[in-house]
């Protein structure tokens, strides 16, 4: 028997491609008079911002940018980069935000691998781009952002403001929500960075899901700290447009500028890596806590509980989230439970350091034992790999079908992160699987050892990796960056750890040095693993 439901079809009236461009249309229509952008002396409404975006898109099309073209952008967080999160998708092009702290070799590699047709560059970063062009052996057309706050060099390309003077085009949604919207490269903590393709559908759902999970009210005042080259600023540019909020820029994410902007502009929300939160806690000292509290999202590495304690005392309401470049950013959250209210600050911070449960827009996040293919029990000790399924998972790796197939084996996206699941269903990362230290048959979580080291008052940053050992196979080796003026011996730190950890988990060696970090503040453990192998 044929059901009458089957006769009903998708039409333009009831099926519209999902795209964050619809948030721009909404902001222009509903929030036109509200402030969209604050940067130095610049104040622009949503009406002005939307008009500029539509003009820049038309200007880019006038330069020959067409659907499916990759356009790379090398810029700090400034209003132009925010506008490009809408202007480039409006042209049908694919936005490739380049990490501004990469070395010229990697930028050259990405420009080549991404098949970039055009580079939009902030003039302060022209020297970096020029070196990349030299290594590439060719130049690409450029458009230059001329920021009066940071004059730089010119390659003679047209300016961004010239594009903004073009007659504006209308806001048109893509024909297919599966069209690529962005091409983001992994941070390259292991080998060559991979190109991760985002689609319009995922970008739309990420913004909706983030707003719901973070419980963001209308008209937030959002401080731009998360680099927009990092998962497109975790999707927050699109989220703020949806809610008619205000984007505040400081250009440089220095602690004094961030704290001044929070006080001056009434900032309500921002996102930042744990290393930035630590920097803010140190800069703030014993100042009175912010009132009302400021909502902060942190991700990038599991935050040491000691940092969460300090930021809570500052009046920061920090929610830890977890995600990857391949999942458009955050896909799980450590949602606060009322039962935690009566615990001590230290106990609360320990719980807040968990990676938590799936965001509302993610269909499934689970921890699977790869050997059995089954979810691990909720016992807080059995380790498996975090696997994800949902609409905010990448289309795939650009020009790499083998890596794509491997990442999507058995119908899951495999994160490469080892985790346990607690009784309350909250996940907690124990390690990148390649970072687990197996000593005498015992698994040691480097994250657990690092959390103890961060509690020592002399420690600024810490990373623990495996060091080969004749008897135990491998043992923990700590690389530690000390605070300015702090003095402590390796023996002191090892003793400090031994009083707080099982003896086999305490580091067997401590090396003092400035730690190598990616541009997003992640410590590059692969470099430290290589170093540890060479140690006697």
TrEMBL record:
SUPFAM superfamilies, alphabetized: Acetyl-CoA synthetase-like (SSF56801)
Example of a GO MF term: metal ion binding
PROSITE patterns documented for this protein: AMP_BINDING
Protein known as: 3-methylmercaptopropionyl-CoA ligase
KW Cell inner membrane (keyword) present: no
EC number in record: 6.2.1.44
Superkingdom to which the source organism belongs: Bacteria
Cited CDD domains: ttLC_FACS_AEE21_like (cd12118)
BP term (GO), one: fatty acid metabolic process
Organism: Donghicola tyrosinivorans
Keywords: Fatty acid metabolism, Ligase, Lipid metabolism, Magnesium, Metal-binding
Keyword ATP-binding in annotation: no
Catalytic activity: 3-(methylsulfanyl)propanoate + ATP + CoA = 3-(methylsulfanyl)propanoyl-CoA + AMP + diphosphate
Signal peptide boundaries: none
AMP-dependent synthetase/ligase domain mapped to chain residues: 29-398
Oligomer status and interactors: Homodimer.
Similarity comment: Belongs to the ATP-dependent AMP-binding enzyme family.
Cofactor: Mg(2+)
InterPro entries: AMP-bd_C, AMP-bd_C_sf, AMP-binding_CS, AMP-dep_synth/lig_dom, ANL_N_sf
Domain named AMP-binding enzyme C-terminal: residues: 448-522
């Amino acid at each position: 028997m044929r059901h009458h439901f089957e006769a009903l079809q998708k039409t333009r009236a009831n099926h519209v491609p999902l795209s964050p461009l619809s948030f721009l249309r909404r902001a222009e229509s509903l929030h036109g008079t509200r402030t969209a952008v604050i940067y130095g002396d610049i104040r622009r409404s949503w009406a002005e911002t939307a008009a500029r975006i539509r003009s820049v898109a038309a200007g880019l099309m006038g330069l020959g940018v067409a659907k499916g073209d990759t356009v790379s952008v090398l810029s700090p967080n400034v209003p132009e980069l925010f506008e490009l999160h809408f202007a480039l998708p409006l042209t049908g092009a694919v936005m490739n935000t380049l990490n501004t702290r990469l070395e010229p070799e990697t930028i050259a590699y990405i420009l080549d691998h991404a098949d970039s047709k055009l580079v939009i560059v902030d003039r302060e970063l022209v020297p970096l781009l020029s070196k990349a062009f030299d290594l590439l052996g060719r130049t690409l057309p450029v458009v230059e952002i001329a920021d009066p706050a940071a004059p730089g060099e010119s390659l003679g390309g047209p300016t961004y403001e010239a594009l903004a003077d073009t007659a504006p085009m209308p806001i048109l949604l893509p024909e297919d929500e599966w069209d690529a919207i962005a091409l983001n490269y992994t941070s390259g903590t292991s080998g060559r960075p991979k190109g991760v393709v985002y689609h319009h559908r995922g970008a739309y759902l990420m913004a909706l899901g983030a707003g719901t999970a973070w419980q963001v009210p209308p008209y937030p005042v959002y401080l731009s700290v998360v680099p927009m080259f990092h998962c497109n600023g975790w999707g927050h540019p699109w989220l703020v447009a949806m809610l008619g909020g205000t984007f505040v820029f400081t250009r440089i994410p220095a602690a004094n500028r961030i704290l001044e902007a929070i006080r001056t502009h009434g900032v309500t929300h921002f996102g930042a890596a744990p290393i930035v939160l630590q920097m803010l806690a140190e800069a703030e000292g014993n100042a009175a806590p912010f009132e009302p509290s400021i909502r902060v999202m942190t991700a990038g590495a599991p935050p040491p509980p000691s940092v969460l304690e300090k930021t809570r005392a500052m009046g920061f309401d920090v929610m830890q989230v977890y995600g990857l470049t391949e999942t458009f950013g955050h896909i799980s959250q450590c949602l606060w439970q009322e039962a935690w209210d009566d615990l001590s600050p230290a106990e609360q911070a320990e719980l807040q350091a968990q990676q938590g449960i799936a965001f509302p827009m993610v269909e499934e996040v689970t921890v699977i034992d790869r050997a059995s293919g089954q979810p691990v029990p909720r016992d807080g000790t059995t380790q498996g790999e975090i696997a994800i399924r949902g609409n905010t998972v990448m289309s795939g790796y650009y020009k790499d079908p083998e890596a794509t197939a491997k990442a999507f084996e058995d119908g899951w996206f495999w994160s490469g992160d080892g985790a346990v699941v607690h009784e309350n269903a909250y996940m907690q990362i124990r390690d990148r699987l390649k970072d687990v230290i197996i000593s005498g048959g015992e698994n040691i979580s480097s994250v657990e050892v690092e959390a103890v080291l961060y509690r020592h008052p002399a420690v600024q940053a810490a990373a623990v990796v495996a060091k080969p050992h004749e008897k135990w196979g491998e043992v923990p080796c700590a690389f530690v960056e000390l605070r300015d003026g702090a003095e402590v011996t390796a023996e002191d730190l090892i003793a400090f750890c031994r009083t707080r950890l099982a003896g086999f988990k305490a580091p067997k060696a401590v090396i003092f040095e400035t730690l190598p970090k990616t541009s997003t503040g992640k410590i590059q453990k692969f470099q430290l693993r290589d170093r540890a192998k060479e140690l006697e």
